Amino acid sequence: MTIHTKQITLPAGYIVINNKPFDINIMKKKFFNTNIYRNNSATEFIVENGKITEMGTNLPECDEEIDLKGKLIMPPYVDPHLHLDYVYTGRNDGGMVNSGTLFEGIERWHYIKKSQNKKDVKERALAGIREEVSHGIQFIRTHIDVTDPELTGLKAILELREELKDKVTIQIVSFPQEGMYAYKNGFEMVEEGLKMGADCVGAIPHFEWAREIGEKSIHKTVELAVKYNKMIDVHIDETDDVMARFIELLNALVMTEGIGEKTAASHACSFGSADNAYANRMIGLFKKSKINFITPPTENAYLQGRMDNYPKRRGLNRVKELLEEGINVCFAQDSINDPWYPLGNGNMMNILDNGIHLTHMASYQEIEKSFDLITFNGAKTMMIEDYGLTIGRSANFIVLNESDVFEAIRKRVEVLASVRNGEYLFKRKEPIYDLPLNL
Questions:
Q1: Domain boundary residue, one of 381, 400, 419
Q2: Model confidence over 114-128: pLDDT tens digits?
Q3: Contact 358, 415 (CB under 8 A)
């Protein structure tokens, strides 16, 4: 294969810059004139073979030099909790819910999934991934329902994970949506999902038919994680019921096994309703275990508080208090138009904006650090080691349409470009007006 330019015929793998041919595998690129999030000392960096090799100011000239025009850049957004097999089923026959509750959503999904096939799942999931990536996400953790005798969703997403690995990193949770034990052979299906290649063990203890059974599912989740050397990500206490305290058992078990850093507690809504005496004791134990928490602010606010009259609870975990104690918390999208949530489009800036409002984390000091909730904190939860704009790591980053952190959040700016391994996944122009506002 050859690539034809104006008057030069080049071998595959070469491009022309300033009328000179370059091998893209060995050429050096310099990205300059930029504001790097969490780095006040560097304004440019050099990329070679997809890796960052130098950072600083006034770096040597390179084969290709890209002016970022003073824009703010940061590592790609991370969505650590999504359901790719559910996307765009919210308006299907039987998908629209009336009560807006978690449990009605599960009931609706029970019937919807019976009509899906692998082709349908892949097409919908790919569209959902495309939406997320177009908003600057490059890392996704998706829970895939394995309470399905055919494991249709899991087979589809396993294929997509491999097909798209050069453009987006996808982790898969073997997740029993209808219960590890409430669904016949649910435990066996979770284990089979791990054998097929899922990255994490999932569970939903508050949906099991009795507290003892929910506790059994937590024990089995930890046992499977140890047996197969997998991470853990549990839908836990996703309810306003203050008696739902499965987080206590999960935290104790992973602390005993020494795998708290490999564990994520998703939702933990009831912890936001727990009394302070209990919460303060548990926060101390969370610090010891180093467990991670995932909060989808828009989804939790939408689903919870449905049984309240007034006052209505916001339905979120104690995000602010956990962060103040050094416990890792990240935000997530969770749903894109499914039976649980009618909206969602993978725009993490929208998630961040809602999250900092709902958690009262909008002081100037908190806002300056809040991008961590959709970048570094999510990467830590997913245990992604090759992350961040640091020498030796992959040149994965996004370019925002602002130069200042505070203004980027205040204006909810869009992502102008996403770069993976030093190459653009996409690049868009700054918005222009056909007829500018004249004030």
A1: 381
A2: 889 999 999 999 999
A3: no
